[in-house]
Specification:
By secondary structure, the chain is mostly beta strands. The protein is 11% helix and 44% strand.
Length: 204
């Protein structure tokens, strides 16, 4: 489990194919940046842009993960070199600063707007239609591993647009600063909303 509070911005520095076929995955070599690797062991989980991955090797400031082709097809930002949001798995001794996050990407959104509003930035994302029922005003959403609060929801013919206000601190300490219209982002809906939807669907 995670909180959606990004601990550090790292960088994918190298991608090594895990095979020669079209369905082969890749090994990502990641510079951990300011992420403390002192308590990270082999097999531990680290969320990379909101996708939970398993550490297969590590040094004091770097680590590697293996990503299957299926995961690459269903996520954004793990198929190219560049900066990524990082968060280590939650422990029971830590504060839940964001909300409960599983690190399982539910779908890909597309940035429709990223523009200044006063001292903040307004982020508008179009989510797939199947995710619309999980999005609510003042509800929680994870965008590229960042726990955020939905300020507006509007259903469209293509899916569902939601708006988020990003304070300067969030922009400064995450990779969201690089977003622009047309960028694909990883989305994870609120865990509780998923369970509520399931319970309601089974009622007679």
């Amino acid at each position: 489990m995670f909180t959606g509070i990004v601990a550090a911005v790292g960088k994918i520095t190298e991608m090594t194919p895990l095979g020669s076929t079209a369905d082969a995955g890749v090994r990502l070599h990641i510079d951990a940046g300011a992420l403390d690797m002192g308590d990270v062991g082999l097999g531990d989980s680290i969320a990379i842009n909101g996708a939970c991955m398993t550490v297969v090797s590590k040094t004091a400031d770097r680590f590697t993960v293996d990503v299957s082709r299926e995961s690459l097809n269903r996520t954004a930002g793990l198929d190219a070199l560049g900066e990524v949001n990082l968060e280590k798995a939650l422990t029971l001794a830590e504060r839940l600063g964001g909300h409960l996050v599983s690190g399982h990407v539910d779908g890909l959104g597309v940035v429709r707007k990223f523009a200044p509003v006063g001292e903040s930035m307004e982020l508008v994302v179009e989510a797939p239609r199947e995710m619309a029922k999980y999005l609510a005003y003042k509800g929680s959403i994870v965008v590229n591993g960042v726990s955020l609060t939905v300020n507006r929801v509007a259903d469209t013919e293509q899916g569902c647009e939601f708006s988020i206000n990003l304070i300067p601190h969030t922009v400064a300490v995450t990779t969201l600063k690089h977003l622009q219209p047309g960028t694909k982002v990883n989305l994870e809906v609120d865990l509780i909303a998923r369970y509520v939807e399931r319970m309601l669907s089974l009622q007679p």
